[in-house]
Amino acid sequence: MINYEEEINRFKPSLDVDQIEDAIVKVDLTDMNDIMTKLIEDAIAEKKDTEK
Amino acid sequence: MNYDVTLARIANCYYNLGLERAKLRDLSGAAELLKKSLQFNKYQKDARNLLGLIFFECGETADALVQWVISMNLLPDDNIADHYLDEIQRKPAILRICSDNVQRYNQALNYAQNNNEDLAIMQLNQVIQDSPNYIKAHILLALLYMKRENWVKAGRSLYKVLKIDRNNPKALVLMDEVKQNTGRKEVEQSRLKNAFSHRKMTDDDVIVPQEVKEISPWMVVVNILIGIILALFIFNLLVLPTKTKALNASNNQELISYTEKLDMANREYSDLKTQYSALEKQYNDAAQQIQQYENANESFIGQFRTLTQISKAYESGDVELAAQLYTGVDASQITDENLLSQYQEIKHIMETSVYQKLASDAYDIWNGGNKDRAAELYALSIALHEDPENMYYLARIYKTSGRVEEANILFDKIIGSYPSSDFAEKARTERGY
């Protein structure tokens, strides 16, 4: 049984054309490549700290 | 292992899957896969552009623009997103309508979330009228109708959603609910059951084996004959009329050709006939002219000869012959100027001296007793020149010779033509006036 009230409340407002610039700024463009790079960098840094 | 290559491959795989879904109009599924592709490789240009297209198709113009702008920023070279952005910028009216619709949708959502469903439904209907592909508006409207248990209208909205996005999960769930409430689900289930189930054989069903009939040789002959007759019939019905038509057309063409040739020959004949008539006329005219020239020439020669003979006779002293020839000349026939002047000279001689000579000779002969000869000469003299004296003497000879009528004619002529002369009085006396 569908709860219509809940379903309606789940809806979010659509993005307005005037808000495009803000939306672009807010978009998270991080991809798996960035994450991997970050992980590798962190791992290298941690290794350096350990060696010290 | 080079992980970035692996990530790019994974992203490409997701993009390919997303493209396949998009081709099947499973826009929701395609969008999810394309988003995953971008999570693995944000530089997957095609995935981002296709995601933008899907957003645009679903009525989310702003989201589409976001994706295309990001795509252009990340990879500006040889990017079709530039074309999409250009298309939208070239038609600012579309952008304005989309913006207005988004605003109205957001307002309708606000109404719906604050239990103001009537206004929300009205607003959403307007939004859908302007943007028939706006999926979120359709689904929200369907939900509002379902809440009011208006299943038919809700089903209509959901049907439109599923036409745009075939596997939209929310629309599928809601459609299932609508079908359950309208009874369509049972109908569809029974239809599916009938379509894919086999009918079980009952005990009364009998399988009749196919008989193999043996055909006798006579039947074979009869069948062949029937086949030939049918073939002839079909030939007469289909092939023959076409051939006859083609033959008739050919004959007609030939006939037209012959008619044209005949017509041309007739025209040529007519032209030649006209030319012949003209030439014949020219010939006749020429022949007539030649005849006229010949006649004129003959006449000229005759006249010349006569005048020459007159001159010769006169010069030789034979005035009687000269006078006889002169009386035979028709002066009106002389047209040549030289002959005419010669004739005038002869005439002058005849009318001045020759007639007197003849009258003198006649008088002498009369005195000699030869009346007839005298009468001939007098008559010749009078023919050259009418002199009342000569006429009187001739009349007298006639009278004495018993030719009274001729004499009286001459007497009367003297009285009538020369009334004042001396011989007129004598003529009256002779006539007894």
What's the SSE blueprint?
The complex is a heterodimer of chains A (52) and B (433).
Chain A: H1 4-10, H2 20-26, H3 32-51
Chain B: H1 3-23, H2 27-40, H3 45-57, H4 61-74, H5 81-90, H6 92-113, H7 117-130, H8 135-147, H9 151-164, H10 169-182, H11 184-196, H12 217-315, H13 319-327, H14 337-367, H15 371-384, H16 388-400, H17 404-417, H18 422-431
Largest interface in this structure: A-B, 24 and 37 residues
Order of helices and strands of chain B: HHHHHHHHHHHHHHHHHH
Return the domain count of chain A.
1
Query: Can you tell me the overall shape of chain A?
Result: elongated
The amount of helix of chain A comes to 55-70%
Q: Tell me the CATH architecture of the domain at 3-192 in chain B.
A: Alpha Horseshoe
Overall mean pLDDT of chain A stands at 90
Residues in helix, % of chain B: over 70%
The count of strands of chain B amounts to 0
Specify the structural class of chain A.
mainly alpha
Q: What summary fits the major beta sheet of chain B? A: none
Q: Please trace the helix and strand order of chain A, writing H or E for each element.
A: HHH
CATH class of the domain at 3-192 in chain B: Mainly Alpha
Gyration radius over CA of chain A: 21 Å
Query: What's the CATH topology label of the domain at 3-192 in chain B?
Result: Serine Threonine Protein Phosphatase 5, Tetratricopeptide repeat
Detail the poorly predicted runs of chain A.
Answer: none
| Rg over CA atoms of chain B | 71 Å
Gross morphology of chain B is: rod-shaped
Q: Number of helix segments of chain A?
A: 3
Number of helices of chain B: 18
